[in-house]
Design goal:
Number of helices: 19
Largest sheet: 8 strands, mixed
Shape: rod-shaped
Length: about 650
């Protein structure tokens, strides 16, 4: 159970869990359609940012009734005006004429003349409205009923009335209708021997020349459950908005102000270019820098015809979208990549820079692929990237906060700041499952105890005794920390300190440094006790002596206790020997022993690491309690004059 608990708290495991959780949430948002408006806005932005084309499509000419034309010829245009307009255009020999003006009912005068003209000229196409399930169908002129020279003008709009898709076919179950733009394009392409046919790999897809025009599906790109009835394609609006198409007013045609070459062999689309008629639509170019740009119906038809001509003659592919599985994998990949930011980067500055750089890279990839006519959604992957990075970072930060608090609770009070920081930097090697790893290592243990403490405790009342003892403990603990040791525990009036933990030493030089630091610490503790005795004596408080035992050797360190109360400690024979040295009832024959305030005894291993830095005296080979073999014991007096200390992290004050 503990193994599973540690695994679940592993940053790597939680990174995977949180990353996949974010992915599921982001995908749920996308499936619910909550990200669609942002994906479509990104699509519009990519369209607007495309490099401009060299000029308008010269194969298409627009004849738009302006406000001046409406004042001159009236609205709706009479059949006579419309017939004269078409007669003059036909005289210039266009390839096809498409009329985007409903004429289901006669508008006298001139109805008979218009009917006769439509009957004679097979290059003239008229618009009709297919309508929807609720009705609203507008039939074509009676002369064109049941002919192939009729095309619908129905437009598919997204939320906000924006036109991003073009309809090619509509089917009500009994009738298949063509759009006006498709009728005009096919009539033009027929002169080049190009006709629509089934795609080789999928008969349900249309092939026009060398170009496959796959139909729009309801979840293509950033769309979610869109209306995909009929046969739709994504509009590319190539050349919009400023390049446009060559356009003339009705008066230009009726007054003979147009050169025949401007019309000859062209596709001419006749309609309205007056705001008062309100035959205009919002497009992807209606936002951003072109927020006031709305497109007239004749322009919509022209862009659709141009896109079909480029597909048939220039092999220009339509805008494609990846499969839903690919989009899911793309979102999942970016979500996990975002989590790596939180897993690996700790610096706030580098985290922010990495998140921004990732979003910029995603946008750039989306834009560059869009230039290749692929629309890859980027909002869902970007949101997954951002949320995953933030959530994993938050988790790792909280985990590190818990680990740091735990480490500081275990060590910081009785450990120097530099050792604590070093421990934190190397925590991945030191911690497992949020607890310190048990280690077998070589370290130096110091035990100190007060001589005559029982007498002192009998002389002082409890409060005074505790104040006196706390002053002693606080002073000695600081000295241990200054010498890069840690206070393992306080045992009554005794102190256990360890040098060389919690970070394991791997070289003899490091082990020697710990041994010397322990002895330096003991000598400094003796000096501090001298100062404290002088202070206590001046205050009428009792003075005290001290015994210290030091031993260097192998031991085991780790955390003991429950989750509520955990203690980091050292155990093993080295700890026992140091304790026995401190309590040893034997001293050297040196006459200085009688006047000594502090007795410092060390084992032979520690003695070897001192390297002659201290003046010592051999106490003898002593059989310590619990050990069969005798232990060589030495007493430390003072550092030699030539002694140069190892550099300490901090200096005593």
């Amino acid at each position: 159970m503990a193994k599973w608990t540690r695994a679940l708290r592993s940053p790597l495991v939680m990174y995977l869990a949180l990353g996949n959780l974010v992915f599921v949430c982001v995908f749920a948002l996308r499936a619910a359609g909550n990200l669609e408006f942002m994906e479509l806005a990104t699509y519009d932005l990519y369209l607007r940012l495309r490099p401009g084309v060299s000029g308008p499509d010269r194969r298409i000419v627009l004849i738009g009734a302006t406000e001046a034309d409406l004042r001159t010829y009236g609205w709706p245009l009479s059949d006579a005006v419309l017939a004269e307009l078409l007669r003059r255009l036909t005289a210039h020999r266009p390839q096809a004429i498409g009329v985007d003006i409903y004429r289901d009912l006669p508008v006298p005068p001139g109805h008979t003349r218009l009917e006769a003209l439509l009957t004679r000229n097979r290059h003239i196409f008229f618009v009709m409205k297919f309508g929807d399930e609720g009705g609203g169908r507008v039939p074509p002129p009676p002369a064109l009923a049941d002919t192939d020279r009729v095309g619908f003008a129905d437009v598919v709009t997204d939320s906000g009335g924006v036109v991003r898709r073009g309809l090619l076919f509509l089917d009500d179950g009994s009738t298949v209708a063509y759009s006006l733009s498709l009728r005009l394009a096919l009539h033009y392409l027929a002169a080049y021997g190009i006709a629509p046919g089934p795609a080789p790999n999928n008969p349900q897809h249309i092939r026009l020349g060398e170009t496959i025009l796959p139909p729009f599906e309801r979840n293509d790109g950033g769309y979610v459950d869109a209306d995909a009835r009929g046969y739709q394609i994504l509009r590319d609006y190539a050349g919009a908005p400023r390049s446009g198409f060559r356009r003339y007013a009705l008066a230009d045609v009726l007054m003979g102000r147009i050169e025949p070459q401007a019309i000859k062999n062209k596709i001419v689309i006749v309609g309205v270019a007056a705001q008062s008629v309100k035959d205009y639509f919002y497009t992807p170019y209606s936002g951003g820098l072109d927020s006031d740009q709305r497109m007239f119906g004749i322009n919509l038809h022209a862009h659709a015809v141009s896109q079909l001509l480029r597909a048939g003659l220039d092999a220009a592919p339509s805008i494609a979208t990846p499969s839903e599985r690919t989009e899911v994998a793309w979102t999942w990949l970016w979500t996990l990549l975002g989590g790596l930011i939180g897993l690996r980067i700790r610096s706030v500055r580098w985290f922010s820079a990495s998140v921004v750089a990732g979003l910029a890279a995603l946008a750039l990839i989306g834009y560059l692929t869009f230039l290749q006519r692929w629309w890859i959604p980027s909002v869902a992957p970007g949101l997954g990237w951002l949320l995953s990075a933030g959530l994993v970072t938050s988790y790792v930060s909280n985990l590190e906060k818990e680990q740091r608090a735990m480490l500081m609770q275990l060590f910081s009070r009785y450990m120097s700041n530099s050792v604590a920081e070093s421990l934190w930097r190397q925590r991945e090697e030191f911690l497992e499952g949020g607890r310190p790893l048990p280690q077998r290592l070589t370290a130096t243990v110091l035990f100190s105890d007060l001589r005559g403490f029982t007498t002192v405790s009998e002389r002082l009342d409890p409060r005074a005794l505790m104040d006196w003892l706390n002053a002693y403990m606080e002073a000695m603990a600081k000295i241990v920390m200054v010498h890069d040791g840690i206070v393992d525990k306080f045992i009554g009036d005794a102190i256990m300190a360890v040098f060389g933990v919690p970070l394991a030493r791997h070289t003899d030089t490091e082990i020697q440094q710990d041994a010397v630091h322990a002895v330096d610490c003991a000598v400094t503790m003796e000096r501090e006790l001298t100062r404290l005795n002088t202070e206590w004596q001046s205050q009428g408080l009792p003075t005290i002596g001290m015994r210290i035992g030091i031993f260097t050797g192998p031991l085991v360190v780790g955390s003991l206790g429950s989750s509520d109360r955990m203690e980091y400690t050292a155990i093993g024979d080295t700890v026992n020997i140091a304790s026995r040295l401190e309590s040893l009832d034997k001293d050297s024959a040196d006459p200085r022993s009688a006047d000594s305030l502090c007795r410092i005894l060390i084992g032979e291993t520690t003695m070897k690491y001192l390297g002659g830095k201290y003046e010592t005296a051999q106490v003898g080979a002593v059989r310590l309690k619990g050990r069969l073999a005798a232990t060589a014991v030495y007493r430390v007096w003072a550092p030699r004059a030539s002694y140069t200390k190892f550099p300490a992290t901090e200096s005593a004050t």
